[in-house]
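Example A, followed by Example B.
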Amino acid sequence: MTMTSHHIKTMTPPLFSRFLRYSSLRSPYPRAIIASASSTTAGSADHHHAFFSTHTFPPGSRTRYIAPHRHSPTVMMASITSSSIMKQQINCRSLLPKQNRNFATSSSSSSPHPFVLSHPSEVDHSGGDETTKSRGRIICITSGKGGVGKTTSAASFATGLAQRGHTTCVVDFDIGLRNLDIHLGVERRVIFDFVHVLSGECTLSQALISDRKVKGLSMLAASQTRDKEALTIEGVESVLDQLTEMFDYVVLDSPAGIESGARHAMYFCDDAIVVTNPELSSCRDADKMIGFVSSRSRRAEIGEGKYGCRAVSQTLLITRYDPVRAEAEESLAITDMKDLLGLPVIGVIPESKDVLTCTNIGKPIISLGEENPAAGAYMDMVDRYLGEEKELRFTMPEPVSFFKRIFG
């Protein structure tokens, strides 16, 4: 059965399905996947769904189908053959209204991914050369458990990148419970925030806060009065698209857990730094987040097909490490955490009282300089991320002097 322009017409799902069954038995050409509509009782929206059927078209055909909205009885089928014989377009609404799209963006390894933010492979193929990168790289600082030092690490990591001459923006994704502005000492300068940009109440440039002490460092604060439901895939993507055009690196400070804020933060990331403490509960939650990044990020959706990209690069950052307690088996050792989580270690931050002091005065601990153990460990972490090879420090107990052993 050959379909010409004379036969182009709107077909309801039952008739459309019968046409597919009839024509698929009589066509010698290879099969192409198409979508047709199937629904149950008209009053039951939960049972409306789309299912896949098969039809055949000549070799070389390019076929695109959009599944119907659950309230729409029609299907749009656009088939463009090599001889341009068949063209059929029937307007319908998408299955997912734009405002409700939540980690359901389509992906395919057989066609370019329709994202506003450029394809991840563009930053992968640059080989680290700043002059060839099409956009800045997105780094997510994340973990499963709260209180492990994500915000402290995000502030020091972003500061370290800027100190090394890379323009950097750090974004607070903890909507409703922001703290990053306190760590950077800019809490009194916050006028507009992330949600204001998403809602169109201000421009991104108005919301960005430039650090007065570190050249090249900026921050985008989270809202203190809204909740995480204000985040949308389209909105976050649009903001990140602008930020990656302006900065070499965009550091995302993720909230704890696996809810909306954390998922939006990790979804578009190119690299993920998973923060954990040397305790079993923290490592177990970190392992859960590693699985989410591996399976639910945009890179995971795109895959490694013809238009694919590399998986998210994940590394482990161990904070509040006490080598004395680890040697006494009172906490997990570095080797235990590496074996448990299966990630390379990008840094080990020793336990330090100076972290709390720096937080209270609004100063990232990395700014204390190489002499401070925690600051030196963060500097090493930044260098390792940028490709330098450095041995892990502060992982062994300091030798105890003879007099200290005697007198305590």
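Example B, a separate protein, is given below in the same form.
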Amino acid sequence: ERDFLKKVYNVVEAGGKVLIPVFALGRAQELCILVEEFWERMNLKVPVYFCHGLTEKATNYYKLFITWTNEKIKSTFVNRNMFDFKHISVFDRSYVNNPGPMVVFATPGMLHSGMSLNIFKAWCHDAKNMVIMPGYCVAGTMGHKLLNGSRKIETDKGSVTVNMAVEYLSFSAHADAKGILQLIKNCQPKNVVLVHGEERKMSFLIEKITDQFEIPSFKPANGEQISIPCQPQVSATMSKETFKAVRSAGNQFDGMLVRKNNQLVLLSKEEAVQQLGLKPHTLNLNYKLCLSGLNLEGSVIMERLHTQLSSIISDQKLGTFKRQHDGTLHLNSVHITCRTEGGRSVIHVSWNVEDEPIGKAVSEILEECGEDLITN
């Protein structure tokens, strides 16, 4: 951690930019907290960003469910939520060519596509800049080539010369062979399936598992199907109402399996809430877009927005927005309004987590098109 922060600090102090390709869940938040604490301690003003999308969404969930985190972070919650970053904000692609130093956490972590690759191609020519690879990179990816010393990289738009510094600092969340063997010893499974690794190293690990535990082990290739003989015998009782719901649901039923009086009982969500004394929670998500360059009435904005969104959302087969008498738009729990705040029109979108596909689609359309969606 000290080495990581030292390298980042030295680059930005010299006026360079630092790209840190990360996976959206876990490692991005871990490194953001490291940088946030260091920036606070050193009183640095250099901008730090993480890319919007899955990283931003995952961070919001960490912020909401602080109990998911380790004891150190939970202990600081009394004073402030560690995920309410003061020095880190959401990255916009227009910032790529901004002058001066900056630090950007971008996905994906192996530099094989997406925003991290786009930023790399823009910054790799400058020797003042640095890319820090904080995790494993699969053979054939851009990250793997960089870590193996390549200084001329082929991209979809031709070859690029890499002048920026390349560093590897392992923050891997994966267990090593010793850790996996210890896990197998503790869990005593009847079968082991190895995924997400290099074929040679997986073969070596299977030999170890066979020698130590005499357990059937598999290492299927991507897309390969395997068949593991087993005899699952799970018996459960259920109410007549739940039985009817299971039959009508076919192969998929959303419920809860609980043990009562040494017997398994399948409960619907409604039965679980009632019988177990649970308190149901609804998670609501919000998005807003400021329309600083428009001088239109709110009703006109909502009318145009209704026309555009109805066409796009219907094409995606997500449903149809209905316009209410007050001008607001509704589709299931998705609720869209337009308000005036500080002399500017602001579009507000809210939805609950059950309608995440619709809410995500609407927010991404607004993020991508912005005011063009209304003026066109």
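On Example B: DSSP finds 13 helices and 17 strands in the chain.
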